Amino acid sequence: MIAKLVQADEDTVRNVIHRFNEIGLACLDPRWAGGRPRLLSGDDGDYVVATATTRPARLGQPFTRWSIRKLAAYLRRVHGHVIKIGREALRCLLARRGITFQRTKTWKESPDPERDAKLDRIEEVLEHFPDRVFAFDEFGPLGIRPTAGSCWAEQSRPERHPATYHRTHGIRYFHGCWSVGDDTLWGVNRRKKGAANTLAALRSIRAARQDGAPIYVILDNLSAHRGDTIRR
């Protein structure tokens, strides 16, 4: 009756009843086994980590970085230290050891000898006159076709836009002005960069502050930002 109620084997139910009569509720302890012994020792794990953090070229491999598949295949055929490990077990081992896939990023330092002095001036006006500070720059080239995006919408089939393989109608540059004090961005799309377009953007900044007081514009040293008309 009990076996049918719990949908278990009769011998299993009989053994549990006997164990309950002997030791009480402790019989409900499932007494899980320890599982299969580990196939990799601590030294094997250290060797895997050392291999993963070594450039493949130094080990005679014809590629520049390890993937999980390539690393597992290499460990299976290392002469004198063969390690048979699956891809998922290898991934978990690296994660436990704190080894993650990373990309190197680079940056460029400005060659301008007056860089520090200019940065000091920028920090000074940002601290004392934030409502008079503006930043200007061009962004591009921009494809004029719509780009992919995401939003919340009613369930349906999303729109699909063709990829921009040929810019048959040219490109555009966004000339943007940002007011630091107001945290406001405005701008216009142009066909090209140039001193005339830069001057128009600077005039729009002056129009935003028509009181005649000084304004401070932060921009880079692009040649289109340093024309004689702009300086005047």
Automatic annotation (TrEMBL):
Listed Pfam families: HTH_32
InterPro entries associated with the record: Homeodomain-like_sf, Transpos_IS630-like
Protein name: Mobile element protein
Native organism: Streptomyces lividans 1326
